[in-house]
Each structure stands twice: as structure tokens, then as C-alpha cells.
């Protein structure tokens, strides 16, 4: 695993010759490092976990963690919400050079700034290795490392109805109490009518289920087990 991470790190860190020719010098400029903390690298997350580790180490060294994280979030959101973009990125029949030309020359106009060199290098590597369908997985693993480096933990709160600001504040306070001083919760809220009521909360890799649908399922299971 360590050998693979080192190889991936070298590939992402060293821009391919054609990228050096096409990407402007400003793309390679670095910003002051905002966080020198290196989180525990991912283990047992497959090849994309290794790629995320390599990309994180390279980006942290360059000092543009925030910019690359923004790149990956924008790309992920585009993949999830735009069918045309998703088809373009994942169609194996399109050459890597065609995809990279668009990402370098046109995609930046949508983000109002060019994609970072590390982002482009990593995407090109995925295209060359026929792994374009795994971009979302890579972004998810990178975000885990990014939040960990900032002493944060992503939490997903699902509710059947829209929560008020007061409810959200109370949820954040409860999560802070649960996590103690270990990290700060970064909360994402999502409507999920199927849970009927209550909350379904993902705290890292743990789940706190107080949903009505879950309670009904337990009651049903209990009743059925008695007959």
C-alpha cells in the first residue's frame, strides 16, 4: 500500500509535459499554507483512497488545499446535477486529450477560475486509467482528509420536514456535546420524507437513527417475531 501511495504521489506531483505546456504559470502559484496538520491517511479505502492520500499530500505541500477542495466539490456537484457533464466525463469513447482540453480551457469559465494543477493532473490520471466513474469517490475521500486536517467531521442530518434555524442550532450543540473537543461538526441538512419524522443522523461513519420509520420497523419486527 505504501509503495502504491508513493507512486501515485509522484504521478500527481509531477505535472505531465503537455500540462506544463498548456496550463498558465498562475495555475501553479501557491497560497500560504493555512493548515500544516497532516491527518491520519486513509486505510482500507481501495485505490481511490490511495489516490486521495497522494493528492492531499501534494496539495498540502503546495499550499492550496482549499482551492483543490473547491475544485472537487464543484466537479462533484456538476456530476450529480448535470447529466450532459456526467456523460462527457464518464464516456470511455472520448479521448483523455478531449476531456482535458475542455477542463482546462472551458470549465474554468464556469468556476470563475482555472482548475488547480493538482486537480487537473489527478483527473488526467483517472482518465488514462479508465477510472473516470470514480471521481465522486475520490472527492469524498479527499474531503474526509481535508476536514480531518481542519479538525472537523462531516455530519449529515436527514429530516422529513424543513428544520428551523433554532432546531439546527440545537442539533449542532448536541453534536458538539457528543464529539467533545475531538473535532468540530460540519453539518449538512437533507430533506428525506421517507423517514416520516424524527431524525437520521450520520456522524462520520456512525449512524444515529431516531426516525419514525425506523421505530415503526422495529415495532413491526417485534410483533411479527411473536407469531
Features:
single chain, about 230 residues, alpha+beta, Peroxidase, domain 1, Glutaredoxin, four-stranded mixed β-sheet, about 60% helix, globular, disordered N terminus
Describe the structure.
It comes from Theileria annulata. This is ATP synthase delta chain, putative. Belongs to the ATPase delta chain family. With 227 residues, the protein is of the alpha+beta class. It folds into two domains: 45-149, N-terminal domain of the delta subunit of the F1F0-ATP synthase (Peroxidase, domain 1), CATH 1.10.520.20; 151-226, Glutaredoxin. It contains eleven helices and four strands, in the order αααααααααβαβββα. Strands 2-1-3-4 form a four-stranded mixed sheet, with helices on both faces. Strand 1 (152-159), helix 10 (165-179) and strand 2 (184-191) form a beta-alpha-beta unit. It starts with a helix and ends with a helix.
The largest sheet is: 4 strands, mixed
Run of helices and strands: HHHHHHHHHEHEEEH
Q: How many structural domains in the coordinates?
A: 2
What is the overall number of helices? 11
- The level of helicity is 55-70%
Strand content: 5-15%
Strand order of the largest sheet: 2-1-3-4
Coarse shape = globular
At the fourth level of CATH, the homologous superfamily of the largest domain is N-terminal domain of the delta subunit of the F1F0-ATP synthase
* pLDDT < 50 runs, ≥5 residues: 1-34
Tally of DSSP β-strands:
4
GO molecular function: proton-transporting ATP synthase activity, rotational mechanism
InterPro entries: ATP_synth_OSCP/delta_N_sf, ATPase_OSCP/dsu
Protein name: ATP synthase delta chain, putative
Pfam family, one: OSCP
